[in-house]
């Protein structure tokens, strides 16, 4: 279902990475274009230097996406503790900020977070408290997107 006034975005495929896939990111971009996809998704598993993991410069990948007439989106998985911070103490917003050069270079039209509690045994009240504490971070993320 599509909200009034919003264009739907059909994501064609996830970009796959070694060691699970022998293809390079450039191979996946070429495949997506040849298969008729309009969009590809890049998945980030923080923390780390995602740009070096891609196997080509961000400029090269951005040019390849534009040449293939592909848009891209990014998924960022952030494992958080009860205080809303990852294993190295960053908030989801700080993780997002570290990825802004990559997001910009890959001309990502959308970014979405998957926030995953590190402690899978958290009870519902603790999860609700954590969710409430994350609202300002979500609002700041929307502000950055604007």
Tally of DSSP β-strands: 4
Low-confidence stretches: none
User: Which structural class fits the helix and strand makeup?
Assistant: alpha/beta
Mean pLDDT score: 84
Q: Report strand %.
A: 15-25%
C-alpha-based Rg, rounded: 17 Å
- Helix share, percent: 40-55%
Distance between the termini: 24 Å
Number of helices: 5
Largest sheet: 4 strands, parallel
Write the H/E string, N to C: EHEHHEHEH
Strand order of the largest sheet: 1-2-3-4
- Global shape: elongated
Main features:
about 150 residues, alpha/beta, four-stranded parallel beta sheet, 5 helices, elongated
Short description:
By secondary structure, the protein is of the alpha/beta class. The protein is built from 5 helices and 4 strands; from the N terminus they run E-H-E-H-H-E-H-E-H.
Description:
The protein contains five helices and four strands; from the N terminus they run βαβααβαβα. With 146 residues, it is an alpha/beta fold. A four-stranded parallel β-sheet has the order 1-2-3-4, covered by helices on one side. Strand 3, helix 4 and strand 4 (108-117) form a beta-alpha-beta unit. The two termini are 24 Å apart.
What is the element layout, followed by pairings?
Elements: E1 13-14, H1 25-34, E2 39-45, H2 50-53, H3 58-67, E3 71-80, H4 92-105, E4 108-117, H5 124-145
Parallel strand pairs: 1-2, 2-3, 3-4
């Amino acid at each position: 279902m599509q909200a009034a006034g919003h264009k739907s975005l059909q994501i064609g495929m996830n970009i796959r990475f070694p060691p699970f896939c022998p293809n390079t990111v450039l191979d996946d971009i070429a495949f997506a274009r040849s298969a008729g996809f309009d969009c590809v998704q890049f998945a980030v598993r923080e923390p780390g230097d995602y740009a070096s993991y891609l196997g080509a410069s961000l400029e090269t990948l951005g040019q390849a996406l534009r040449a293939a007439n592909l848009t891209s989106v990014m998924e960022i998985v952030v494992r958080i503790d009860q205080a809303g911070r990852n294993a190295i103490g960053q908030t989801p917003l700080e993780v997002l900020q570290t990825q802004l050069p990559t997001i910009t270079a890959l001309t990502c039209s959308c970014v979405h977070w998957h926030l995953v509690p590190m402690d899978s045994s958290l009870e519902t009240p603790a999860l609700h408290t954590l969710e409430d504490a994350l609202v300002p971070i979500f609002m700041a993320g929307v502000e950055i997107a604007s």
